[in-house]
Amino acid sequence: MNKILVVGAGGQLGIELVEGLRQLHGAENTIASDLKPFEETQLPEPYITLDATDATAVKGIIEEHNVTQIYHLAAILSAKGEKNPLLAWDINMRSLLTILEVGKMEKVEKIFWPSSIAVFGPDTPKTKTPQTTTMNPNTVYGISKLAGEQWCEYYFRKFGVDIRSLRYPGLIGYKTLPGGGTTDYAVDIYHKAIKGEVFNCFLDKDTRLPMMYMKDAVKATIDLMQAPSDRLTVRSSYNVAGMSFTPQEIFQSVRSHFPDFQIVYDPDYRQNIAESWPESIDDSTARSDWGWEHNYDLNSMTEDILSHLSQLLS
Ligand code: NAD
Ligand code: AKB
Predict the structure, then answer these.
(1) Is 185 designated active site?
(2) Residues of the chain where predicted confidence (pLDDT) is lower than 50
(3) Which of 6, 13, 92, 187 maximizes ligand 1 atoms within 8 Å of its Cβ, making it the mutation to test the pocket?
(4) Residue 10 Cα: closest atom of ligand 1
(5) Partner of 36 for a Cys bridge, out of 40, 252, 273, 280, CB 3.0 to 4.6 A?
(6) Is the pTM of this model over 0.85?
(7) Which ligand 2 atom sits nearest the alpha carbon of residue 182?
(8) What's the confidence (pLDDT) of residue 30?
(9) Contact indicator for 49, 5 with CB cutoff of 8 Å
(10) Smallest CA separation from ligand 1 atom 29, residue
(11) What structural domains does the chain harbor?
(12) In sequence order, what are the beta bridge partners of 245?
């Protein structure tokens, strides 16, 4: 029987991934954990307050609960990382190395760790960015994710740790507000539209970025973790794609439901980060290795989010 530990579960991805994992493995077999105390999360029990950089605490929980799989989500994202680069490097690298090392020692069967399109930089081909290409990221978050990918591959090849990873694009969910990324605008816009407020967009109207609906991200994660090991040809991190759009295009999609909705473009330091990333991603390796398929495009995502969000906020 699988016993799952989700680390950094209190964030935008964790809240929804825990739900998906609990449907699959049972709530009693899926322990959510985060730095935050229980009262500050939206997660139901079982829940443990856990610092991912504390190797003794992580080891204790794995042994006490006979954990067989870890999903390690804790990180400082791109925009927040540029405000405090040393903190971002420290948290992102120290937590990953803790999970890899404890996972190896405790013979954890499988580990999931997310990378990001932030591993690509200004020298990377902008469209249909290939699985293997020039990287050279120029944010501390991207540098930490690229180093993390290489550490994952190293632990797999040297120690046989079965660690799997996806380079998520910007993830868009409606259940919680995002935690300090450059793609956060594409979550905020739905909340402003529902509240009838003008949306102040921190990216320029034509900045195209790869994005994915959270339901597809949860599906990709579970599909990858269930794939037979011998199907996986990539042990750094897989490119995955859902859709690509600009602020103007998502605004038009939302405005088709709220004809009076208005947007003001006011780009800030996050514009430079966005401009260093690809516009679209070639994920053909994920599609052929383990059958990845996305379900949502921009308009079907907008419909789904608005129908759920209006119920949640009413
Ligand atoms: P988030 O910022 O919403 O959540 C991160 C969580 O990690 C927070 O709840 C935070 O309290 C927790 N955390 C921070 N330091 C911790 C520590 N030392 N110990 C335990 N928990 C700690 O981020 P998210 O959007 O949920 O992203 C989750 C993962 O997915 C990250 O690794 C991120 O890099 C990756 N990712 C996210 C996106 C996206 O668009 N959201 C895209 C690409 C990759
Ligand atoms: C961010 O904007 O930092 C994240 C990501 C693409 O990794 N959403």
Answers:
(1) no
(2) none
(3) 13
(4) 9
(5) 40
(6) yes
(7) 2
(8) 98
(9) no
(10) 73
(11) 4-168+213-239 (3.40.50.720), 172-210+242-313 (3.90.25.10)
(12) 209
